[in-house]
């Protein structure tokens, strides 16, 4: 009979210790700040980068007089039924925009959002081979010549 009571007491202590460990680990996991801080830092970094890039936007020499630095346009290969994208021109591309010939200059950018992928730049440089479209604007010949970053 003493052995049974001793076994029950030891079993109770083991279960109490296991429960205490589970509560401690779950509390530490629930109160971890790293995940939320990392996401907030990412959001703040993207917002800061976008603000800096859009402040650098200027009207292109290829656009008509009176055009705004930031506007809505459809890139090459997009149909008229699709929503236009936010368009802007940068005299000098940020380090994020690199093409095979080195840092990109004289860059035409479109902000493009794709579900599951997030926000991207569709862009081309005036140093690429360009053709005039129906509106008389220079753009790449094919949609495949747009870079996606």
Task: Give the key terms.
149 residues, single chain, alpha+beta, two-stranded antiparallel ribbon, rod-shaped, five-stranded antiparallel beta sheet, 2 helices, 2 domains
Fold and architecture overview:
The protein has 149 residues and is an alpha+beta fold. It folds into two domains: 2-46; 49-148, no CATH class. Helix content is 34%, strand content 28%. It contains two helices and nine strands; from the N terminus they run ααβββββββββ. The strands form three sheets. The chain has a five-stranded antiparallel sheet, with no helix packed on it. A two-stranded antiparallel sheet has the order 3-4. Strands 7-8 form a two-stranded antiparallel sheet. The protein is rod-shaped. The chain starts with a helix and ends with a strand. The mean pLDDT is 81.
Layout of strands and helices, then pairs:
Layout: H1 2-30, H2 34-55, E1 70-73, E2 85-92, E3 98-99, E4 102-103, E5 105-114, E6 118-125, E7 130-132, E8 138-140, E9 147-148
Antiparallel strand pairs: 1-2, 2-5, 3-4, 5-6, 6-9, 7-8
Give a brief outline of the structure.
The protein has 149 residues and is of the alpha+beta class. It has two domains: 45 residues; 100 residues, no CATH class.
The H/E string reads HHEEEEEEEEE
The low-confidence parts are none
Mean pLDDT: 81
The helix tally amounts to 2
- Biggest pleated sheet: 5 strands, antiparallel
Span of the ends, CA to CA: 75 Å
Overall 3D shape: rod-shaped
Structural class: alpha+beta
Specify the oligomeric state: single chain
């Amino acid at each position: 009979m003493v052995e049974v009571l001793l076994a029950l007491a030891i079993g109770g202590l083991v279960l109490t210790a296991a429960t205490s460990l589970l509560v401690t680990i779950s509390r530490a996991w629930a109160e971890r700040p790293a995940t939320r801080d990392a996401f907030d830092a990412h959001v703040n970094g993207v917002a800061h980068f976008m603000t800096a890039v859009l402040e650098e936007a200027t009207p292109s020499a290829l656009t008509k007089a009176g055009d705004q630095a930031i506007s809505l346009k459809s890139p090459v290969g997009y149909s008229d039924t699709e929503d236009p994208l936010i368009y802007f021109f940068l005299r000098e591309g940020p380090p994020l925009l690199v093409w095979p010939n080195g840092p990109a200059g004289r860059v035409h950018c479109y902000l493009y959002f794709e579900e599951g992928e997030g926000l991207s730049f569709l862009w081309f440089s005036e140093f690429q081979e360009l053709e005039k479209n129906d509106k008389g604007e220079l753009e790449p010949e094919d949609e495949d010549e747009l870079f996606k970053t």
